């Protein structure tokens, strides 16, 4: 919802303001029917319009992955690493999101494959 429901300000483009207004009215209509569940996701809650946030009954926050979860994510994307290397990677990637870790692993896999192809491994 980030692109549709940014907090309104003086610099907001009129078309964006109208889209937000339509979205808010649609959500209001859903609430009356009671048979529709609206789920929205964002990485930037602080940037959302307060009127949108107020229309949701609950909010679930997903934090950053812990060390064990980072190790599990790395194991999925960096298959050439042994268990000790995965453990080390999980420590040095503290503060990274799952996507950040995936990107790092994919880049490392490409680098490793390139070295393998050139016979450097």
From TrEMBL:
Molecular function via GO: ATP binding; ATP hydrolysis activity
Gene3D superfamilies, A to Z: 1.10.8.60, P-loop containing nucleotide triphosphate hydrolases
Ranges for domain ATPase AAA-type core: 1-63
Pfam families attached to this UniProt entry: AAA (PF00004)
InterPro entries linked to this entry: 26S_Proteasome_ATPase, ATPase_AAA_core, ATPase_AAA_CS, P-loop_NTPase
Keywords, comma-separated and alphabetical: ATP-binding, Nucleotide-binding
SUPFAM superfamilies cross-referenced by the UniProt entry: P-loop containing nucleoside triphosphate hydrolases (SSF52540)
Family membership: Belongs to the AAA ATPase family.
Name the record gives this protein: ATPase AAA-type core domain-containing protein
Organism expressing this protein natively: Taxus chinensis
């Amino acid at each position: 919802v980030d692109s549709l429901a940014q907090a309104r300000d003086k610099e907001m483009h009129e078309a964006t303001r109208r889209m937000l207004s339509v979205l808010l009215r649609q959500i209001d209509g859903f609430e009356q029917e009671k048979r529709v569940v609206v789920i929205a996701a964002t990485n930037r809650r602080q940037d959302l319009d307060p009127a949108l946030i107020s229309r949701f009954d609950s909010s679930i926050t997903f934090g950053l992955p812990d060390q064990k979860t980072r190790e599990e994510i790395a194991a999925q994307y960096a298959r050439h690493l042994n268990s000790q290397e995965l453990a080390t990677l999980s420590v040095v990637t503290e503060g990274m999101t799952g996507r950040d870790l995936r990107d790092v692993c994919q880049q490392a896999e490409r680098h490793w494959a390139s070295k393998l192809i050139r016979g450097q491994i």
